[in-house]
C-alpha cells in the first residue's frame, strides 16, 4: 500500500530534505489510511510520510533510507513487529520506534521495550495521545541532533560547550572527592526546582531521597568520606536514584558516573567524578503501570487470573502447613449477557465495575476477589473455620446483588451462581480447586441459577456427560448426523402452504432425534455455531434444489440466523455464494433474526440486512415482543415479516377474549405493511381468534409438526387443503406425530 501517490513504491527522498521522516507500518488498511491522514493534516506537510502494510515492505524502506520515527504495529501478516525491531538493531539502523498494538499481553509490551521502543501505545489509542507521543519523539531527536552538533564544536568553542551543557535535557554535574557538587547545569532548576547556587558547594546527599542514601553511597563508591567511581578511569557506572524536588515531589533519575582522571583538568586534589542525571520518572511509571496491569484487571482493578493463582497457591501452602481448610468460589453472573447485548458493552462494563465493588464489600480482610474474565469472578477464603463460614459469605454475596443496578437510568437486575470447593476435601492443587468450583457453579446454573452449592464428586459425572455431548456434536458435523426439518406455514384463508421454517435436528446414534434446543446451547458456548450455521445454510439450499427438481410450486423457506453468525460479518458473501452455487432464487429464502440482533450492533446489522434485501432475500423478526422491542428499529431495519411468538399465542384460551399484546402486534404489522406469521398455533380457538383479528398465516401443531424433507415434499406435492374443521378436534387434522419436536 502506498499513500504517497508516487510512481516508485519505495521512493528515496534526498538527505538534504530536513523534514522528519516517518514510516507507518500497519496491516489494517483503514487504520493505516486514518493514521496517515491524521499525521498529514496535523503536520501540514512538515512530515515526510511513508507507509508499509507488511513487514517486507517496511524492511525495504528501512534498508533504503533513514527514518526519524517508525510507528509500528506488532502483528503483521508476514512477520512480527519484534522481528522488524531486531532487523533495525542488528544493522544499527537509527530512528525511534513507537509500538502501536492491540495485544493485551504483557510479554508483547516488555519485548518491545527491551528492543528499544520509545513508547508502547495500546489500540485503540487516543488522537491526542498519539500526536503528543510523535511530537515528543521528534522533539527528543531534534534535541539529540542539537547536542551532537554542539559536541562536534566543543573542542574549539567554550561558548558552544556552555550552550551544550545548559541546553541538555539532562542534569550534567561534577563532584569533588568529598562529594560536594562543583558544577551543575541549568537543567537542575527545570527538573528539581533548585537554582544552581542552591546546589553547588553542597554534598550530593542533600538531593537524594532518604530511602536511597545507602544505594547512592554504594553507587558513588563513597568510602572514608571520599567519592570515586567504582570502575576504572575509562569506564562508567549507572544507578537509578530518586532525587528530591523543591516542590516535594520526588523524581527518578538514571545517573551516570565517570571518574575524572588525575591531572586531566587540574591538580590531583581536584580528582572526583562527573556524570549525567537523566529523568526517567515517566518511563518508570510506565513500567510500573505495565507491571501492575500484568497482574490486575484493567476494567475492575481487581487481581486477574494470574495474580489470583499466585495468592491461591500461597493460601494452599499456608493451609497445608497449618492443617487448615480454605474455600475457593467460582462466581458467574446470571443474565449478564442479556444486559450486555441489549444495553451495549459500555453499560456492560459499568455493570461489572458495580458488581465488583459490591462483591468486594462482602469479603473479610485477607480474602481475595479476582476477575477471571467476562462475567466470571473467583474468590479465595483462606483460614476457613468450617463450611458454614463459606456458606455465610456466599449468601452475603448473593444478597448484595439483589438490589437493582442503575446504569444511567436503566434499572437492571442480575443474580449470581456460585460454586464452592473446599481444600483439601475437594482438591489439593490450584487447578483442581478451580475446576471443581467451576463444576459446582454449573450445577447451580442447571438448577435454576441465583444460588450456591458445594462441590460433590457426583457432579463430575454430569460434567463428563456435557463434555461427551460437545465431542459428539463436533463429530455430528463430520458424520452427517444433522438434518433439516420443516414446519409448514399455512394461509388459513386458502388452506395452502405458503412457506416453512427450517429447524435443525440431530440424529444422535444413541439418544435418537434431538431438537435444536437440546444441543445448540452447547454449540454457542463452545464455538460451534459458525460451522453449524454454515452447514445449515448449505443444507437449506440443497433441500430447495431437491424441491425445485420435484417440480412443485415455489415456497419460501425461512432460516434462523444466530447472532454470532451475523456478527462475523461475512454472512452476506456466504449467502450470495450459496445461492449462486446451487442456482436458488433469492426470493425463496427468508432470514429470521431476533430483536437482540437489532440492538447489540445496529449499524452493522443494518448494512448486512440491506445487502440481503438488495440480493432479494427477505428478513423476518422472530419471537417478536419477547425482547427489548422498539418501533424505531422496525423503521430503520429492512424487515418484511413479523412472527408472533408462541408464548403470546398460548395465552389465547377464549376466541371471544381480549389479548392486547397480540392485537398490538397485529396492528403494528398492518400499519407498517409487514407480513405476519403466528407461531405455535395448537388449538382451533387460537386459530379462530388470530384469523378473526387479521392474522391469516400460521404455523403450529394444529396443522403440522416439523417434518423431514421427503415428507415435506409429499405434503407440498399433494397440497391438500389444510384448513381444519373447527368443530372437529384439531389433532384429527394434524399430520402424524414425529419424534422430533419444534426447537
UniProtKB/TrEMBL annotation:
SMART domains (alphabetical): EAL, GGDEF, PAS, REC
Domain Response regulatory: 21-138
Keyword Phosphoprotein in annotation: yes
Keywords assigned: Phosphoprotein
Stored Pfam families: EAL, GGDEF, PAS, Response_reg
Residues annotated as domain PAS: 157-217
Domain EAL: 466-720
Domain GGDEF: residue ranges: 324-457
Keyword Chloroplast assigned: no
Entry's Gene Ontology molecular function annotations: catalytic activity
Database matches in PANTHER family: BIOFILM ARCHITECTURE MAINTENANCE PROTEIN MBAA, DIGUANYLATE CYCLASE DGCP
Annotated protein name in UniProt: Phytochrome-like protein cph2
Protein source organism: Duganella phyllosphaerae
Amino acid at each position: 500500500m502506498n499513500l504517497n501517490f508516487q510512481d516508485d513504491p519505495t521512493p528515496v527522498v534526498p538527505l538534504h530534505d530536513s523534514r522528519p521522516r516517518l514510516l507507518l507500518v500497519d496491516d489494517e488498511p483503514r487504520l493505516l489510511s486514518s493514521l496517515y491522514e491524521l499525521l498529514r493534516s496535523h503536520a501540514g506537510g512538515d512530515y515526510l510520510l511513508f507507509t508499509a502494510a507488511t513487514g517486507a515492505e517496511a524492511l525495504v524502506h528501512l534498508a533504503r533510507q533513514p527514518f526519524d520515527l517508525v510507528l509500528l504495529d506488532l502483528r503483521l501478516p508476514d512477520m512480527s513487529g519484534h522481528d522488524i525491531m531486531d532487523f533495525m538493531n542488528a544493522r544499527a539502523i537509527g530512528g525511534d520506534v513507537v509500538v502501536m498494538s492491540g495485544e493485551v499481553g504483557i510479554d508483547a509490551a516488555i519485548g518491545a521495550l527491551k528492543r528499544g521502543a520509545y513508547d508502547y501505545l495500546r489500540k485503540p489509542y487516543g488522537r491526542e495521545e498519539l500526536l503528543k507521543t510523535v511530537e515528543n519523539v521528534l522533539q527528543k531527536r531534534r534535541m539529540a541532533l542539537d547536542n551532537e552538533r554542539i559536541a562536534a564544536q566543543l573542542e574549539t568553542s567554550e561558548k558552544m560547550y556552555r550552550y551544550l551543557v545548559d541546553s541538555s535535557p539532562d542534569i550534567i554535574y561534577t563532584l569533588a572527592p568529598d562529594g560536594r557538587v562543583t558544577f551543575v547545569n541549568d537543567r537542575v532548576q527545570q527538573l528539581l526546582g533548585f537554582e544552581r547556587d542552591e546546589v553547588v558547594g553542597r554534598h550530593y546527599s542533600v538531593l537524594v531521597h532518604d530511602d536511597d542514601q545507602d544505594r547512592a553511597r554504594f553507587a558513588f563508591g563513597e568510602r572514608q568520606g571520599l567519592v570515586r567511581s567504582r570502575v576504572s578511569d575509562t569506564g562508567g557506572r549507572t544507578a537509578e536514584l530518586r532525587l528530591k524536588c523543591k516542590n516535594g515531589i520526588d523524581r527518578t533519575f538514571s545517573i551516570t558516573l565517570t571518574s575524572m582522571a588525575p591531572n586531566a583538568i587540574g591538580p590531583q586534589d581536584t580528582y572526583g567524578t562527573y556524570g549525567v542525571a537523566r529523568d526517567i520518572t515517566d518511563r518508570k511509571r510506565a513500567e510500573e503501570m505495565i507491571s501492575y496491569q500484568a497482574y490486575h484487571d484493567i476494567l475492575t482493578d481487581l487481581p486477574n487470573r494470574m495474580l489470583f493463582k499466585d495468592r491461591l497457591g500461597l493460601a494452599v501452602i499456608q493451609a497445608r502447613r497449618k492443617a487448615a481448610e480454605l474455600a475457593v468460589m467460582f462466581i458467574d453472573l446470571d443474565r449478564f449477557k442479556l444486559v450486555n447485548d441489549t444495553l451495549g458493552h459500555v453499560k456492560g462494563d459499568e455493570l461489572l465495575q458495580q458488581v465488583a465493588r459490591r462483591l468486594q464489600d462482602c469479603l473479610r480482610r485477607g480474602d481475595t476477589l479476582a476477575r477471571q474474565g467476562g462475567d466470571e469472578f473467583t474468590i479465595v477464603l483462606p483460614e476457613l473455620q468450617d463450611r458454614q463460614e463459606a456458606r455465610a459469605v456466599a449468601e452475603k454475596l448473593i444478597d448484595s446483588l439483589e438490589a437493582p443496578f442503575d446504569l444511567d437510568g436503566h434499572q437492571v437486575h442480575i443474580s449470581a451462581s456460585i460454586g464452592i470447593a473446599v481444600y483439601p476435601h475437594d482438591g489439593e492443587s490450584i487447578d483442581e480447586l478451580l475446576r471443581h468450583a467451576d463444576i459446582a457453579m454449573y450445577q447451580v446454573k442447571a438448577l435454576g441459577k441465583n444460588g450456591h452449592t458445594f462441590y460433590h464428586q457426583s457432579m463430575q459425572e454430569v460434567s463428563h456427560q456435557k463434555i461427551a455431548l460437545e465431542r459428539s456434536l463436533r463429530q455430528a458435523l463430520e458424520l452427517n448426523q444433522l438434518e433439516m426439518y420443516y414446519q409448514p406455514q399455512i394461509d388459513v384463508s386458502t388452506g395452502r402452504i405458503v412457506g416453512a421454517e427450517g429447524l435443525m435436528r440431530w440424529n444422535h446414534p444413541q439418544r435418537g432425534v434431538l431438537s435444536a434446543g437440546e444441543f445448540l446451547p452447547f454449540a454457542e458456548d463452545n464455538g460451534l455455531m459458525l460451522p453449524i450455521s454454515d452447514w445449515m445454510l448449505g443444507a437449506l439450499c440443497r433441500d430447495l434444489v431437491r424441491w425445485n427438481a420435484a417440480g412443485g410450486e415455489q415456497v419460501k423457506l425461512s432460516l434462523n440466523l444466530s447472532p454470532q453468525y451475523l456478527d462475523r460479518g461475512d454472512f452476506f458473501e456466504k449467502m450470495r455464494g450459496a445461492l449462486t452455487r446451487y442456482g436458488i432464487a433469492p426470493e425463496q429464502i427468508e432470514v429470521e433474526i431476533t430483536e437482540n440482533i437489532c440492538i447489540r450492533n445496529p449499524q452493522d446489522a443494518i448494512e448486512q440486512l440491506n445487502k440481503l434485501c438488495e440480493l432479494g432475500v427477505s428478513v423476518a423478526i422472530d419471537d417478536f415482543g419477547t425482547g427489548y422491542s422498539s418501533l424505531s428499529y422496525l423503521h430503520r431495519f429492512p424487515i418484511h415479516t413479523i412472527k408472533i411468538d408462541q408464548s403470546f399465542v398460548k395465552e389465547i384460551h377464549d376466541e371471544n377474549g381480549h389479548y392486547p399484546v397480540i392485537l398490538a402486534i397485529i396492528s403494528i404489522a398492518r400499519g407498517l405493511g409487514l407480513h405476519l406469521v403466528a407461531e405455535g398455533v395448537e388449538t382451533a380457538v387460537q386459530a379462530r381468534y388470530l384469523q378473526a383479528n387479521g392474522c391469516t398465516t400460521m404455523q403450529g401443531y394444529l396443522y403440522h409438526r416439523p417434518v423431514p424433507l421427503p415428507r415435506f415434499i409429499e405434503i407440498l406435492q399433494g397440497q391438500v387443503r389444510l384448513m381444519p374443521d373447527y368443530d372437529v378436534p384439531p389433532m384429527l387434522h394434524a399430520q402424524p406425530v414425529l419424534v422430533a419436536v419444534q426447537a
